[in-house]
Amino acid sequence: MTSAPSPIVSAYAQLAAAVRHLGYDEGLHQHLRTPRRELHVAVPLRTDAGDLKLFHGYRVQHNVSRGPGKGGLRFSRDVDIDEVRALAMWMTWKCAVVDIPYGGAKGGVTIDPAEHSAAELERVTRRYTTEIMPLIGPETDIMAPDMGTDEQTMAWVMDTYSTSRGHTIPAVVTGKPIAIGGSLGRAVATSAGVVHVTQSALEAQGEKVAGKTVAVQGFGKVGSHAAAIYAARGARVVAVSDVHGGVRDDAGLDIDRLFAHVAAAGTVVGFADADPITNAQMLAMDVDVLVPAAMENVLTAETAPTVRARLVVEGANGPTTPEADAVMEANGITVIPDILANAGGVVVSYFEWVQANQVYWWTAQEIDERLEQRMVMAYDAVAELARRDGLSLREAANVIAVKRVAEAHSIRGLYP
Ligand SMILES: NC(=O)c1ccc[n+]([C@@H]2O[C@H](COP(=O)([O-])OP(=O)(O)OC[C@H]3O[C@@H](n4cnc5c(N)ncnc54)[C@H](O)[C@@H]3O)[C@@H](O)[C@H]2O)c1
């Protein structure tokens, strides 16, 4: 997995295919491809032991034509500028495909959070936030959690930003704790959206989630709740994995007990009453639904030929390379693309931002209903275009998204 190409290669190839389908010229292609702004910052840390360490941080605003930049903050040792560019571009298309009034942005710090104490991560977060302060704000660029960050990280970002302005500004981040203005339903929204689009895809074939077998790669914020929601909807979750390995039980894993095991052990590995399994074995399992919910470049030219699932639902961003897409399409496997499948998180982030701006909070039921409505609407539009134009779901999602962004450019005109 580590030798795979940068995700920017996949992002550029996907955009180029959409541009070809739409018949746009090269000037517009470059305009759609190039980030509006990028900031590279140094993040010095005084460690708990008193040493000085230096980390690199980035914030990229890929496009802001439909609204403020929106996108997560990632802490990972693999973060580099091209990864952040790719993730920012995918945020642009994701917000457009579910039709919420945001552009796309992303941030990252090249740091392994597992190697640092909470106090060190707080100092890194506050210094990074201070360094990118010129770019962020509730009307300009709104952060959310991503890989390696969580609602506590968002609380630190919000506090740092608010302190610098002299008053509380909850709308500068989403995915924050409910006690300081977070939204009900946000913590599980990405996962709920993954299950909603799975249901839509199965319904199109006269089937449903209940009774299906599911394997989930990644047992973090997205994968763990997706596993729980699939199980609650009557599916059999037969395998899950994380960075340390995986576990398998063909009778269906007990997800509540698995959560308890992970809380104690820090990994799914070692879960009693299940067999060990590697990540590679899990990708190749004979299941109805495979959910890559960990990281990029998991389904590649090497691993895609091993996939036996009928439906791949991309909980992660960029798990599939263009070569793998071609292999799976040839093998009759339907892929629900990341920008659609995992958009539930940004949809409820949008709801959180709306609530913060209104200073009025919605009920959990209102959030759940509006999320499902928007995910189903977006899925239906993508599936309809795919049918009409003979496209894959990824191609159709990209075409809808790129067209919406290009329309915004065209209507606004080019300054000066
Ligand atoms: N958090 C969100 O709301 C959200 C929204 C949309 C998309 N995503 C995407 O979903 C993916 C996961 O994000 P998250 O927020 O759940 O992150 P997380 O840090 O909470 O969890 C990541 C999980 O992936 C596992 N993992 C890491 N490297 C792995 C490897 N090499 N092999 C197998 N498993 C590995 C980790 O052990 C962990 O279980 C990312 O691609 C992220 O961009 C997240």
Automatic annotation (TrEMBL):
<feature type="binding site">
    <location>
        <position position="190"/>
    </location>
    <ligand>
        <name>NAD(+)</name>
    </ligand>
</feature>
<dbReference type="InterPro" id="IPR014362">
    <property type="entry name" value="Glu_DH"/>
</dbReference>
<protein>
    <recommendedName>
        <fullName>Glutamate dehydrogenase</fullName>
    </recommendedName>
</protein>
<dbReference type="InterPro" id="IPR033922">
    <property type="entry name" value="NAD_bind_Glu_DH"/>
</dbReference>
<dbReference type="Pfam" id="PF00208">
    <property type="entry name" value="ELFV_dehydrog"/>
</dbReference>
<comment type="similarity">
    <text>Belongs to the Glu/Leu/Phe/Val dehydrogenases family.</text>
</comment>
<feature type="binding site">
    <location>
        <position position="94"/>
    </location>
    <ligand>
        <name>substrate</name>
    </ligand>
</feature>
<feature type="binding site">
    <location>
        <position position="349"/>
    </location>
    <ligand>
        <name>substrate</name>
    </ligand>
</feature>
<dbReference type="Pfam" id="PF02812">
    <property type="entry name" value="ELFV_dehydrog_N"/>
</dbReference>
<dbReference type="InterPro" id="IPR036291">
    <property type="entry name" value="NAD(P)-bd_dom_sf"/>
</dbReference>
<dbReference type="InterPro" id="IPR033524">
    <property type="entry name" value="Glu/Leu/Phe/Val_DH_AS"/>
</dbReference>
<keyword id="KW-0520">NAD</keyword>
<feature type="site" description="Important for catalysis">
    <location>
        <position position="146"/>
    </location>
</feature>
<dbReference type="InterPro" id="IPR006097">
    <property type="entry name" value="Glu/Leu/Phe/Val/Trp_DH_dimer"/>
</dbReference>
<dbReference type="InterPro" id="IPR046346">
    <property type="entry name" value="Aminoacid_DH-like_N_sf"/>
</dbReference>
<feature type="active site" description="Proton donor">
    <location>
        <position position="106"/>
    </location>
</feature>
<dbReference type="GO" id="GO:0000166">
    <property type="term" value="F:nucleotide binding"/>
</dbReference>
<keyword id="KW-0547">Nucleotide-binding</keyword>
<dbReference type="InterPro" id="IPR006095">
    <property type="entry name" value="Glu/Leu/Phe/Val/Trp_DH"/>
</dbReference>
<dbReference type="GO" id="GO:0004352">
    <property type="term" value="F:glutamate dehydrogenase (NAD+) activity"/>
</dbReference>
<dbReference type="InterPro" id="IPR006096">
    <property type="entry name" value="Glu/Leu/Phe/Val/Trp_DH_C"/>
</dbReference>
<keyword id="KW-0560">Oxidoreductase</keyword>
<dbReference type="GO" id="GO:0006538">
    <property type="term" value="P:L-glutamate catabolic process"/>
</dbReference>
<feature type="binding site">
    <location>
        <position position="70"/>
    </location>
    <ligand>
        <name>substrate</name>
    </ligand>
</feature>
<feature type="domain" description="Glutamate/phenylalanine/leucine/valine/L-tryptophan dehydrogenase C-terminal">
    <location>
        <begin position="183"/>
        <end position="413"/>
    </location>
</feature>
